[in-house]
Amino acid sequence: MSYQFEKLTVLIVESNHAMFDLTKGVLSSFGIGRIISAYDTKNGFREFQLSQPDLVIVDWLADESSGLDLTRKIRTSPDSPNPYVPIIMMTGYSQKKRVIMARDSGVSEFVVKPYTASTLYKKIEAIIEQPRQFIKAPNFFGPDRRRKSNEFTGKDRRKSKARPRRASDVAREITKKPK
After folding, report:
1. Following DSSP, what letter does each residue of 18-65 receive, concatenated?
2. Strand, helix or coil at 98?
């Protein structure tokens, strides 16, 4: 499906000017109407407050404050005008621990550099077509970290008297002496 993006505003927070230009060019080819830049997280948050973009694309960033910090600030700061804004994290690092850290900071999608225009488009499309509900927990606020549908159709085990068997219960049953 092809989307009409001319009314969208996107904030790109990227410290590498060449990568910013590349991302801006890709977004322009999608027809994005307004693209705003910031080259560090401090300016990124200020631009976020001023422009209130529809989408934020943030690099992992290696400055004193990372893209993870910016994501958490957007999600949890009382000064954030829209904690629900979709955030795409871009990085050259694809280790599982980094993906988990990004997910746990509240990003909506994760893109590994170098990326293709098709990959970025699919991530934007996923945000539109498959939006995830937001979760508020003591140490997290952001899109539901579970990717699969959380529609549970079976018996709600938390409401039933039956509880799942634990390994300790099974061990106790095995070691019980017969009466």
Report:
1. HHHHHHHHHHHHTT-SEEEEESSHHHHHHHHHHH--SEEEEE---SSS
2. helix
Number of domains in the chain: 1
Angular region, 159: left φ>0, alpha ψ -120 to 50, beta rest: alpha
Q: Please report, for the domain that includes residue 33, its CATH number.
A: 3.40.50.2300
Helix (H) or strand (E) holding 124: helix 117-129
160 in a domain, yes or no? no
Give residue 162's pLDDT band: very low, low, confident or very high (50, 70, 90): very low
Domain with 87, as residue range(s), is 9-143
Residue 114 is classified by DSSP as S
Token pair recorded at residue 157: 């085990």
Q: Is pLDDT larger for residue 1 or for residue 89?
A: 89
Asked, for residue 1, whether it belongs to a domain, the answer is no
Helix, coil or strand: residue 95: coil
Task: Give pTM, 2 decimals.
Answer: 0.79
